[in-house]
Amino acid sequence: MCSNNEGGLTKFEPKPDLALFRKCLKCDKNSVVVTRINDAMCKECFVEYFTHKFRATIGKSKLFDKDEVVMFPYSSSDSSVAMLHLLFKGVGEEAKKKFTFKTICVYIEDNYVFESNSSTHERITFMENVKKSVEYSGFKFYYSLIENCLEPSKNIVSDEIAKLNLNNENKEKFLNLINSCKNQTSKEELLKRLKTQLINRIAIELKIKKIIFPVSCTNLTIDMLTNVALGKGAHLSIETSLEEKLSNGLVYVRPLRELTSKEIAFYNRYNNIDSNIMAKSSSLKNLPNSTIYRLTEKFINSLQNEYPTTVPTIFRTSDKLTPTDELCPEDSCMLCELPVDTIKKISANSSAINDLEYSLSISRLDNTAIEKLFVLKSVCYSCSVVLKDVGGHGNLPQTIKDKIKSRDNLKDKIKEFLIED
Amino acid sequence: MPVNCIRCNQNRAILKRPKTGDAMCKECFFFVFEEEIHKTITDAKLFKPGEKIGIGASGGKDSTVLAYVLKTLNERYNYGVELVLLSVDEGITGYRDDSLESVKRNQIEYNLPLKVITYEELYGWTMDEIVKKVGRKNNCTFCGVFRRQALDRGGLILGVNKLVTGHNADDIAETIFMNILRGDIGRLQRCTSITTGNEGAIPRCKPFKYTYEKEIVMYAYFKKLDYFSTECVYSPNAYRGNARMFIKDLEAIRARSIIDIIHSGEKLAVKKDAKLPIQGTCERCGYISSMNLCKACNLLEGLNKGLPKLGIGKTDRLRKQYNLSPAYSLNSSMANLSLKSSQLSLNSEKDCNCDCGENSEKSCSNQAKNSNNQLNNKLETIVDLNF
Would you call B262 an interface residue with chain A, using a CB distance cutoff of 8 Å? Predict the structure, then answer.
């Protein structure tokens, strides 16, 4: 299909050893890194630029009150490692203007849960190593396990690794749930949403309102395109914003969202904190083409290499979007906890949902089969697909099951006052 | 082991529907394929009785199936619309001439009137000639821009109420990604609507909006439709190729992705304060445009003045360099009003701002008159054509 302005972005023609012969943009030293498409910088100036950009993102929009406690879900990934270091420097002696908010970190172990032949001892050792790598920061650290998302009690987080409930029963229940998922993409998405739910519960448990996520601009871009491919377009602008207010009162903040993964990698290297990166790239060990997320990651990274304006352009696109007014804020999806996007507008008879429903009903004459395939109640479009891939909803966390029940009870109570259309 | 069709449970299934993954027999597949398009047409109220509908026919699989299905449905459900085929001949030897042959065969078989409109008569240039000037890079820009207008002009000549094109679900999903990748908010908002161009231009509809490309191919294959399937001889657009590959890979991982992407696109909303291009009209040809000069006029001016790079990418700098009237966005109309008047006075002094020099004033205006007459003549001769 051809259209006006066919051409895409400008292709980048790399010059050999671009940085080698150039002076730093800011001082007279020899440059070591090229950033923002074509700006050469020396090590010191780069670190200063990077730190400044992070602090400006936080400072600009006055995100945190004085002495406010914020929670940082640390994952020992490269962006986590960089953000911990930035926060550490922000409260250190050298900082010109110290951060006035207080940081509490939570580490959720999800690397070892999928390894059937690893012992509990290995898992503890791994967590002890993570603990050692973050001790320099001086922040208070809490620990939790990914399988705690199935734990109905409030006993989901502890400040001592030894006190965690590491029995195999929980781990098995969790593995059963994840492995009952027929599709690799759905598995990945389910895992992501369950982890987010756990983070939310921990924040509520610790009585913290704001959670800071270390998502880079690059990752945000990948998330964004993945969301489009997963049918989560309605939530695109919500999940990429700097500040996201959840229906349960929590607030997500993404202060790393203006920095690229390349810049983060250089920052970690220049500060000699590379060795703190311990997370595996994907805990499900998915190959590059096995899931939508992994495919999108590959797609963006290869485009970014050829066209260096790719990530910034997509990022700016996301900033111009807003949640559609067709969303119903009172009705949030029980898996991703975002507003449900399946409410049909009377004016929009022609829609992808209608079409899909019709396709399924016309090609399968057996009507009972259709029931299961339709969009689920109180679940958004995309999560409906995920939950359909989960075999047996009995494995789902009690918290989700409770939510369905309480909503139904609530609706029963006010039923007579509701006008059905 | 032979599988029975999920729908009739009698015949043996011969295909797996890409959209739903259901095993089906040939007859049931034809039925659901046509019914779904009928549903799209009625749900979106695409046609009204008595309307004249122009089908953009390239000879490729999408438009061939579109013409066939619309003719079938129009007879089956009494839409009461008059269908005409409209083809654009870009003048690409070894590609369009062959594909037009298959359009002509279809025209006879389906008994539908056909109008072929050529780049040569509209613009005075064939694509072959343009490629000679421009080279293989960027020539898709010319072709795409010119075709868009050509279809509209052809539609005007035929007096159609609506144009339908064979854009399928894969194309729309691809366009959603392209617009995100390019940061084109205005198009991102428009590209998922089933009917576009209600203001000014002839409305365009995409009855295949929810139809998978693979199903169109299957339909054409099992119906043994006569279509042309060769890639354009000029290099395809590399950047769009990336998006196309991505969609194909996504579909391979999860077949429903395509419809999920369209759902995503339908739920995207643009911030109210985001700057969107204003849709106005071109001051030369009156075609819909967000600049004072439309892209086609810009490109054409470049071709006619031997500056083929003129309309590609950022045009301002080049226009200034060659001392041409500025092309500005209609968004900044306030700032440019004064500029425009000053430019006008400048023009009246010289009476001509093309690159033929001040001395050849007379010959230049004559030339313009000539070419104008030429175009008028051509348009008249087209109007005279009747079926």
Answer: yes
- Please indicate, yes or no, if residue B18 is contained in any of the structural domains: no
Reading chain B (387 residues) residue by residue, the pLDDT tens digits are 678 888 888 899 999 888 888 889 999 999 999 999 999 999 999 999 999 999 999 989 999 999 999 999 999 999 999 999 999 998 888 888 889 999 999 999 999 999 999 999 888 889 898 888 888 777 888 888 888 888 888 998 899 999 999 999 999 999 999 999 998 888 888 888 888 876 567 899 999 999 999 999 999 999 999 888 877 887 666 778 889 999 999 999 999 899 999 999 999 988 888 777 777 788 887 777 877 888 888 888 888 888 777 766 666 666 777 777 766 666 654 434 333 333 333 333 333 333 333 333 334 344 444 444 334 333 333 333 333
Mark yes or no for CB contact A352/B183 under 8 Å: no
Instruction: Please state at what angle helix B238-253 crosses helix B169-182, rounded to 10 degrees.
Output: 120
What the block records as the tokens of B254 is: 């999860």
Q: Which residue in the set B143, B185, B257 is minimally distant from A320, CB to CB? A: B185
Strand order in the sheet with B162-164: B114-118, B82-89, B52-56, B162-164, B204-205, B195-196
Regarding whether A401 and A359 lie in a shared domain, the answer is yes
Handedness of CA A147, A149, A155, A159 (dihedral sign): positive
Does B305 lie in the same domain as B324?
Answer: yes
Contacts of A292 in chain B (CB under 8 A): 250, 253-254, 257
Which chain B residues touch A309 with a CB distance below 8 Å? none
Which CATH number do you get for residue B34? 3.40.50.620
Q: Tell me the residue range of the domain where A395 lies.
A: 328-417
Instruction: Indicate the Cα dihedral angle A51, A239, A397, A296, nearest 10°.
Output: -90
Residue A356 in any domain: the answer is yes
A-B Cβ pairs (cutoff 8 Å, strict):
194
- The alpha carbons of chain B give a radius of gyration, in whole angstroms, of 23
**Same-domain status, A391 and A357:** yes
CA distance B152 to B161: 11
Q: Are residues A300 and A337 in the same domain?
A: no
Please name the residue of chain B whose CA is at the shortest distance from the CA of residue A340: B267
- Taken as a whole, chain B contains a residue count of 387
Which residue range(s) make up the domain with B331?
277-354
DSSP codes of every residue in B41-91 = HHHTT---TT-EEEEE--SSHHHHHHHHHHHHHHHHHT---EEEEEEEE--
Domain-embedded: residue B2: no
B288 touches chain A (CB under 8 A): no
Find out whether A107 and A130 touch, Cβ atoms under 8 Å: yes
Instruction: Flag whether the ipTM exceeds 0.85.
Output: yes
